[in-house]
Amino acid sequence: MIGGILGAILTESDNAASGIGILLGILYYTYFEGSSGQTLGKKALGIRVVDLAGGGSIGFGRAFIRYIGRIVSAIPLLLGYFWMLWDKEKQTWHDKFANSVVVPDSA
Q: Residue 62 in contact with residue 99, Cβ under 8 Å?
């Protein structure tokens, strides 16, 4: 979505718009999941990302790893996203990479 908006503004340079969109995505997910564990969408759904072992914040480094893991999860026909359906810890691949789990906000 951000890439589309930037593409409309920066019609001369699609590469610049794509690069800025990717950078903003990385910063957005790393900041919000690394600090509060919630992006705006997760907050609306009442869920958050927490450390699997302790239940606290995953921090910025692991939030960045989780973001990169999303890309890996999507490559084999989104298999990494569906993995939570049969995993005993209910983790996606990107959760496994970052040693995190998504839980209800009330937990």
A: yes
DSSP code of residue 37: S
**Gap between the Cα atoms of 84 and 91, Å rounded:** 5
Separation between Cα atoms, residue 33 and residue 62, nearest integer Å: 9
Number of domains in the chain: 1
The whole-model pTM stands at: 0.85
Instruction: Provide the mean pLDDT of the chain.
Output: 91
The set of residues, in sequence order, having a beta carbon less than 8 Å from that of 45 and lying 6+ positions away, is none
Give the Cα separation of 64 and 67 in Å (integer): 5
Could you tell me what percentage of the chain is helix, strand and coil, using 3-state DSSP and rounding each to the nearest 5?
A: 60, 10, 30
Backbone φ, ψ for residue 92 (5° rounding): -80, 175
φ and ψ at residue 106, rounded to 5 degrees: -75, -15
Mean pLDDT of 16-38: 91
